Queue: 3 jobs
Job 1
Amino acid sequence: MLQALNYALVDKRYNDETDNVWFILMPKTISLPKEKKLTVLCRIEPGCLGPDGLDYIADFCRFANQELKQVDANFIIWLPLPRYDKSLPEMQYSVNQKQLSHDKAAQYLDHFKSDLDDFEEHFHDKLSLLIDEFLANKKA
């Protein structure tokens, strides 16, 4: 008898160069309590929404927040905010309101068999899709 895999499909990626489809799986886990989840504060520049981005960035961040709630929700709290001050970092990580260094965030993600660079790349890919979706809805 086959047992159900204890993995959840996190993402499906298609490689145009090789015609391969990659399925990214993550072990299913019980959701962590809020105080143990990694908070990912991501500052999003208005310019990514085009020349009128300043007019839409707050709405986009609210939209992105709703969409990101389903992404890695068992161990991540997403906090997309407008990036008005470029002196502040684009990404910041914390647990229970305690800020983590880049290395500590990498160690945290390692517990979930996730690499920080891959995690950030996955986030930026998702963000790009959300921007396209948001702008398409604005035009409609």
Job 2
Amino acid sequence: MTPSTKAKRPAVAVRDKSDKAVASQPASGSSELYPTTAYLELEEDKYIRRALEAGRYGKPKVTSASAVIRYAVRHLAEHMTPEQVVAAIREAAPETSNQGRIRL
């Protein structure tokens, strides 16, 4: 993997140490949080980091990437069906040359 490839694909674990505070206040009335990993493009990661920077000021503090991602998923679920999400991702997918795995 070249250095430029690494810069394009930063991996951000959805679960982080700051989730302990969030875990005591479950999202959307659920009783458990499930650990998972999400891999983000650089611009997506930068956006989450900007949200966390803004969340450091005021109360309650928003310092968890997991909280931002959970909010985004809830917001998406309120506005789109799973089928609409799949259709939008497929529509935005690049045309394939049948070489390698398609990045959606």
Job 3
Amino acid sequence: MEMMKANVYDRPGHCEITEVPVPETAPHQVLIKVMSCGICKGADVALAGGGFLAEFPLLNGHEFAGYVCKVGSDVKTFKVGDRVTADNTVLCDDCYYCRKDEPLYCENFYSLGCNGPGGFAEYVVVNADKVFPISDNLSFNEAIFAEPTACAVHSMDRVQVQFGDDVLVYGCGPTGIILIQLLMHSNANRVVVCGPSQDKLDILKKYGCKETILMDRNDPGVHEAKLREIAPKGFDVLVDTTANVDVMESMIKFGKMGAKFMMFAMPHAGAKWAIDPEYWYLHEIQLIPTWAQTHCFGRALEYLESGKVQVKDLVTHEMPLDDYDKGIALAAKGGPGTLKVILHPNVEE
């Protein structure tokens, strides 16, 4: 039996790099040699603690790219050596929501790297219809951003920015920076970003964002006064990318009447958010949570391949798979100087 190296959680909070069997490749599947796999601060950190969709033993990692090294007998669309990434979602196509054409709510939702074996391993097996080719112009490090970009595309589908909308975004982590670029390509009149790290705001400026405000953690009144000055009537769309309930609560007052409030980041399990329902009612504020994606990978890759979404500056740390513990700790801590941490289960020969 052929073996491979993989990161495996046997229980919440405990993982190790160990040897496991290379997965079998069914007739409809493709075996991928993983070259790059990104750590998702939201999902991977939650999964490590037993949250989100975690099922143990857990082999996580849902943002991956690499080479096709084996194809199933029924697969005609790929060959050994192709450079690819993959949509990690697997849907049943038969439950109430799938038959209702709402696949994101699939009652048997299966996600590689969440409740199925993922990319923090030397190899991962994927259904061929979920595999996407990437050009030689897109590096594996860039290609792993197809998954977070797909999540951002789904969010854009949900929020439906209207022509002339003024948009306010709080926070600018790696996936937030991707979403902000999509907002910049939307019908919005202006996109204003308020974030706590100048280095991340500088990346946004480099990518063309014209209005950024440094968040003052010690005295919110400072940045809030600037927001009032530049948008006295408020904003049509409010986007939280921080998952911090205190931040979300502080944003509401910047919404116009009839504003949309989009929760783009996953709050911690059990977090409590104090809201004034009368205020929301009288202002007709729409709450729009968004998470994950299905069927958005094609569009995501078009944005990445065309350069409309840029991600090179988002990779701040790279390390071998053996350093997984170091990588997940870096991602969990975050802060200035840390955006995307990428692990390399294999290296170019």
